[in-house]
Amino acid sequence: MINFEYTRVSSVKAAIDVLAKNPTSGFIAGGTNLVDLMKKGVTAPTRLIDINGLPLKDVKETPAGLNIGALAINSDVSENEIVKKNYPLLALALKAGASPQLRNAATVGGNIMQRTRCTYFYDTAMPCNKRQPGSGCGALQGYNRMHAIFGTSDKCIAVHPSDMCVALTALNATVNVSGPKGERKILFMDFHRLPGDDASKDNTLAKGELITGIAIPKNPFIKNIYYLKIRDRASYAFALVSVAAALELNGSTVKYARLAMGGVAHKPWRLTEAEKFLAGKAATKENFSKAAELAMKGAKGYGHNNFKLKMAPAAIVEALMKAMG
Ligand SMILES: Cc1cc2nc3c(=O)[nH]c(=O)nc-3n(C[C@H](O)[C@H](O)[C@H](O)COP(=O)(O)OP(=O)(O)OC[C@H]3O[C@@H](n4cnc5c(N)ncnc54)[C@H](O)[C@@H]3O)c2cc1C
Ligand code: SF4
Question: Taking burial as the number of CB atoms within 10 A of a residue's CB, which of 102, 229, 235, 245 is the most buried?
């Protein structure tokens, strides 16, 4: 047991101030990821700053879109009537994640910040550049069935495990953050990063910053949407490959498409080339297959995960067909 201190805060300012004064602290929300990481010795914050008392739980629609507080619970968001009616892609993705018990505890901010599920990252006896920079990557030559096929580096081939984040990427959401230097907004697509030379950094959140919420711009993606998650079992398993697909149709022609994939990269992977290709095209299986081909440009397998090179394009086509109804 590694001792740690515990502070409960009730304002955003207090949360930021406590972290500034105790830089080796960590925020705790639902604790569904952080507590596991602490038990396994992957991380050891000297103080937990409990942010569950912050007034950041609301889900509110405005003329500009939807605002969700960072402490909104995953199951509350997925069951929210406005979310189900006007942002159904988000509701579907949230429901595909984890188990009902976990979704009842997990928060939106914690979901965005959850760490990779790479087994080498969780096993402190193994090399892992993300956990211990410079120690090597156990997965590169090891068992890498769950790992990335896009945006990898020789330092890390891990994937970001969230389902919710895949939908938020497709929906052009923004992450609202607050820190010692004030407030700022980060486009969801730019929030998570690729490993590059520094696998230890999962995202672009600066030291001392707190996620306060997310904003989703109003969008037409209500009817023709689908979140496809392919996993080893029907529940309680992370995605091998997932696809968030949203279409705006003009008759049988695609006006706009939004596509993002999970389980394939260190960040939710937006398929911009495929989206551009589909705009103005007939919504046919043939065009969806061409879009999937474009989306797979640059994909690379590492052995055990080579099956994703076939699974991913098939999943894109299937998600688009399902989005068509
Ligand atoms: C068995 C299991 C299966 C799972 N399956 C899935 C799945 O299929 N799909 C999926 O998407 N997820 C899955 N999850 C992950 C789950 O969704 C996350 O654990 C959860 O969303 C984390 O939220 P939390 O509030 O519990 O975060 P915590 O565990 O409290 O925190 C996680 C991290 O986020 C940081 N943090 C929390 N809130 C903030 C904030 N507001 N600002 C800045 N930093 C913050 C914490 O400091 C910590 O580093 C699974 C988890 C488990 C244990
Ligand atoms: S893939 Fe990334 S997280 Fe996994 S062992 Fe390699 S460096 Fe660590």
Answer: 245
- Taking the whole predicted model, whether its pTM rises above 0.70 is answered as yes
The rounded distance, in Å, linking the Cα atoms of 243 and 308 is 13
Place of tokens 């008759």: 251
- pLDDT, average across residues 245-254: 97
How far, in Å, are 18, 89, 264 from residue 219 at the CA level?
38, 11, 26
Residue 13: exposure state from Cβ atoms within 10 A (0-12, 13-18, ≥19): exposed
Position 235 confidence tier, pLDDT thresholds 50, 70, 90: confident
User: Which pLDDT score is estimated for 312?
Assistant: 99
Give the separation between CA 35 and CA 73, rounded to whole angstroms.
17
Distance 13 CA to ligand 2 centre (A): 34
The residue whose CB lies within 8 Å of the most ligand 2 atoms, and thus the one to mutate among 40, 42, 123, 128, is 128
Gap from CA of 106 to ligand 1 centroid (Å): 6
Bridge partners, 245 (sequence order): 226, 259
Ligand 1 site residues, Cβ closer than 6 angstroms: 26-34, 51, 70, 97-98, 102, 105-107, 109-111, 113-114, 161-164, 210-211, 236, 238
Q: What is the mean pLDDT of the chain?
A: 98
Is-contact 309 281, C-beta < 8 A? no
d(CA 279, CA 283): 9
Ligand nearest to the CA of 147: 2
The answer to whether the CB of 241 falls within 8 A of the CB of 262 is yes
Helices (H), 67-215: 74-79, 81-86, 88-95, 100-103, 108-113, 119-122, 164-170, 188-191
Q: Whose CA is nearest to atom 2 of ligand 2?
A: 156
pLDDT tens readout for residues 200-220: 999 999 999 999 999 999 999
Of ligand 1's atoms, which has the minimum distance to the CA of residue 210?
Answer: 42
